Amino acid sequence: MVGTVADPGPLPLTPAEEKVFWEVVQGHTNRQIGDRLFISPRTVQTHLSNILSKLTLDNRAQLVRYAYENGYQPPTSAAVGEAT
Hints:
Layout: H1 15-25, H2 30-37, H3 41-54, H4 60-69
Helix pairs in contact: 1-3, 2-3
């Protein structure tokens, strides 16, 4: 069944994990995410591991598919604390 999810609900993630979630969904590498969020690539990997565990996923590709299939839309820049 193909359709649009009206409200996928909140992600079961911490604010830091949610920021990493959206960066991964947009296709950024750990290094790029670290540079964008001012954290180390190792911290990005830790957040990513926690995200995958919480969502019972195995890898980045499954994470992107999860976001798409469940109707998650990236927040606006202001919503994730970036300068506009």
